[in-house]
Specification:
CATH topology of the largest domain: Rossmann fold
Number of helices: 10
Number of strands: 15
Largest sheet: 7 strands, mixed
Shape: globular
Strand content: 15-25%
Number of domains: 2
Strand order of the largest sheet: 10-9-8-11-12-13-14
């Protein structure tokens, strides 16, 4: 039996985007043993994921102690091959620590930190842009060439769905009927939806709308007369349940290019993702609809963590009706039939 170690430490959205490739590998090689390494905070997203025999967690803030604990956990098993799905020094270092006989990752030009390829035994050139879903798929295809491109799919348990439904109903929204979710991000983040756009899209909706606020937005104030749903730092699986409930009710999600939006899309929700600073060709969720400004400023996309434009993130100053739909997502990956798992 072949044992494969898959490594994606962060970020949450990129981790989720690579899971379609993991599912595809399990489909065509069901007898292989698959182990996944990620940060402890994201590990709950992998609970019960089809084909994963084991999830190993990395305590990113634990320093040398965390590295030694990770090495000990990894060396308790043996791996024929380690796939570095991330492409930086940390992920390549994990591959090296694992002791895997074969260590592969994307080729230098497409790596986040090109020199980290020195910790691998071989690299795989990408035939397109370094989107995390494409990178994971092409790495998997170096082991199983017939693996189809598959959009990621996350599912919640019955108990998780019931708890999330109760939380939604507690803020006055009937999740059995269509409802909308607007993902709120820290306004200091240039990817965040502008307050004016959030207000406009909320007021225009023909169905009830709730605002989703995550742990990074703990200081963000609730909008007047709009139901607010808060998720905590240790509750990533609530996003899966919320996405499933939105999908079941025939609702929608509007959000920025953030991890929460990607998880909601992978859970089956109909998602419209607004892009400004980020390039949708590199990060758009495979099953989502990416929107960009119809007449963006010359500096967009800049991929910067802080906006340097004199007037702020004007690239995000557009609404759904005026946004231009970008041809990013499933059609951009493969000519093979596209499907969800």
């Amino acid at each position: 039996m072949t044992s494969v170690l898959l490594i994606r430490l962060s970020a949450m959205g990129d981790l989720v985007q690579g899971l379609g490739a993991v599912a595809a590998l399990h489909e065509v090689r069901p007898d292989w043993r698959l182990t996944f390494v990620t940060q402890a905070s994201f590990a709950p997203l992998l609970m019960g994921f089809p084909g994963l025999a084991r999830v190993v967690t990395f305590a990113r803030r634990a320093g040398l102690r965390g590295v030694l604990e990770l090495r000990r956990e990894l060396r308790s098993d043996e791996y024929d091959v380690a796939l570095d799905l991330q492409g930086n020094w940390k992920s390549a270092g994990v591959a090296w620590l694992s002791g895997a006989r074969d260590r592969a990752g994307v080729a230098g030009p497409h790596r986040q930190e090109p020199m980290s390829r020195m910790l691998l035994r071989r690299t795989v050139p990408l035939s397109g842009l370094p989107h995390p879903a494409r990178a994971a798929w092409e790495l998997v295809r170096c082991l199983a060439p017939e693996a189809p491109f598959t959009a990621p799919r996350l599912t919640a348990t019955t108990a998780e769905l019931e708890r999330e439904a109760s939380a939604i109903e507690a803020i006055g929204v009937d999740c059995r009927r269509p409802f909308g979710v607007v993902v709120i991000a820290d306004p200091r983040d240039p990817r965040a939806l502008l307050r004016e756009i959030v207000s406009r899209e909320t007021s225009r909706s023909t169905v009830p709308v709730l605002h989703l606020i995550g742990p990074a937005e703990a200081e963000v104030a609730a909008a007047d007369r709009v139901p607010m749903l808060r998720h905590g730092a240790l509750e990533p699986r609530r996003l899966i349940a919320l996405g499933e409930l939105v999908a079941r009710a025939g609702g929608w999600v509007l959000g920025p290019d953030r991890g929460a939006t990607h998880v909601l899309a992978a859970a089956g929700a109909s998602c419209r993702v607004m892009f400004g600073a980020q390039d949708p060709r590199l990060t758009a969720p495979p099953a989502g609809t990416a929107l960009v400004h119809a007449d963006p400023p010359p500096c967009s996309p800049c991929r910067a963590k802080r906006c340097s434009h004199a007037s702020g993130p004007v690239c995000m100053d557009f609404d759904v009706a005026s946004g231009r739909v970008v041809a990013a997502g499933l059609p951009a990956f493969s000519e093979q039939p596209q499907r969800r798992v």
